[in-house]
């Protein structure tokens, strides 16, 4: 079976009188398999939205190729469009329409039934707000409505562009559950995000994007494993004398700072067992490497998403 998405060497430069030339997408290639949950992770301005818009067929690249479900998105074909779900930014809503009218418009576009529209509102937890005007919805509710609109046509391939941006942590986690459910139904999901923990929690594979380029693609777990970084174990100072600290640091390093002792070790189990038997677990914090460390490693820059 062909891939859900194949992208080869996309390039797009914006030219503005004030901004000059901006190489928003600078030779991007990737492949997404059917059923995959694929993430594009990068800081603001990395080129994620431009890439997504090109892949969706909403924007023409200067050069490069896109295949969606084995076909080119240009020229537009209703047959292909029906198989795609594109979540538009909530700001694209007609604010004077009610929730029911908004999703009804999408349902008509996709030839979906009223029952399907109601089912999608139920899925995203908006059934009780069908008569509310879109402008009265909270940020999280608007994001959920935009996802419901993207799903109403029963798409095989769903594009979500920073769906949890500007949401509070609880609303963000609720949306994570919804996104997981969409993928569990067998749909391919492409998500852009600048939240590390979101990419880590949801994606089968993540493309790390910076300055218009994809720097690396892998699963979050593999990224971290290949980094082969030590685990950092911190305990409050004053529980261990210097000789014992030196003894425990035998497989790694130890440093005292700000009332804490920080160990870096590749054998955290052994260290934690020793700390437990010393009764020195006050202020314990264990930090393993995460995608933030990976970002630093692959781009050479600190993460400032
Ligand atoms: N229509 C446009 N005209 C001119 N420049 C643009 C346009 N859209 C984006 N850019 C510029 O292209 C670069 C990439 O923007 P893009 O929106 O694709 O990045 P992004 O990773 O999605 O960032 P964000 O998270 O801020 O949306 C940025 O420098 C941006 O200022």
Task: Please give a quick description of this structure.
With 305 residues, this protein is an alpha/beta fold.
Describe this structure in words.
The chain is of the alpha/beta class and 305 residues long. It folds into two domains: 5-219, 3-Layer(aba) Sandwich (Rossmann fold), CATH 3.40.50.300; 230-288, 2-Layer Sandwich (Alpha-Beta Plaits). Helix content is 34%, strand content 28%. The protein contains eleven helices and 13 strands. It has helices spanning 48-56, 78-81, 99-110, 114-123, 139-151, 169-184, 196-202, 220-227, 242-248, 268-277, 291-299, and strands at 5-16, 20-32, 37-41, 63-68, 84-87, 157-161, 188-193, 205-210, 213-218, 231-236, 252-257, 260-265, 285-287. The strands form three sheets. Strands 5-6-7-3-8-9 form a six-stranded mixed β-sheet, sandwiched between helices. Strands 11-12-10-13 form a four-stranded antiparallel β-sheet, covered by helices on one side. Helix 3 packs parallel to helix 5 (139-151). The radius of gyration is 23 Å and the shape is globular. It starts with a strand and ends in a 6-residue tail after the last helix. The mean pLDDT is 91. Bound molecules: adenosine-5'-triphosphate (ATP). Adenosine-5'-triphosphate binds at residues 14, 16, 19, 22, 24, 42, 44-50, 194.
